[in-house]
Structures are given as structure tokens and as C-alpha cells.
């Protein structure tokens, strides 16, 4: 089984917006809604991870400037 390509931050955010729009404007069967919620959670985890990584890099850069 092939491993899924991890989306970038902007791609993840765009996908989350698409899901939100779909949930807000369409009638979605509960099974599909559950899948969309699960997908949204993975996208949010991905975004959070990338933001934490960027924060760490910024902190390291400032720490290096202080040395």
C-alpha cells in the first residue's frame, strides 16, 4: 500500500475550507460526515505539526542570534 503524500500547510488549509463549505451547504449522509470529520482531524493535526515546526525554527533562529 502506497503511503499518502503529506500536504503542505496551504493545501491542508484549503482542503479544510472545502470540507467546511461542503458540510455547511450540503446534506451529507452520516457515514460520509464521519469520514469528513476524520479527514478534517488529520488535516488539523498536520497543520498544527507544521506550525509547531515553524515556531521551533524561529525560536532557534532567535537563539542563534543571541549567542
Pick out its properties.
single chain; 67 residues; mainly alpha; elongated
Please summarize what this structure is.
This protein is mostly helical. The protein has helices spanning 9-25, 30-66. It has one domain (12-66).
Explain what the structure shows:
The model has no long low-confidence stretch (mean pLDDT 91). The chain is mostly helical and 67 residues long. Helices cover 81% and strands 0% of the residues. It has helices at 9-25, 30-66. Helix 1 (9-25) runs antiparallel to helix 2 (30-66). The termini are far apart. It contains two helices and no strands. The chain has one domain (12-66). It is elongated.
Number of domains: 1
Helix content: over 70%
Binned strand content:
under 5%
Q: What is the count of β-strands? A: 0
User: What is the global morphology?
Assistant: elongated
Give the oligomeric state. Answer: single chain
Rg from alpha-carbon coordinates:
17 Å
Mean pLDDT across residues = 91
The low-confidence runs, each spanning 5 or more residues with pLDDT under 50, are none
Helical/strand content category: mainly alpha
Order of helices and strands: HH
Report the total helices: 2
Distance between the termini: 47 Å
Largest sheet: none
Amino acid at each position: 500500500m502506497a503511503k499518502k503524500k503529506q500536504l503542505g500547510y496551504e493545501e491542508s488549509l484549503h482542503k479544510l475550507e472545502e470540507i467546511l463549505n461542503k458540510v455547511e451547504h450540503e446534506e451529507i449522509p452520516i457515514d460520509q460526515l464521519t469520514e469528513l470529520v476524520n479527514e478534517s482531524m488529520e488535516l488539523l493535526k498536520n497543520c498544527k505539526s507544521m506550525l509547531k515546526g515553524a515556531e521551533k525554527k524561529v525560536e532557534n533562529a532567535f537563539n542563534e542570534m543571541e549567542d
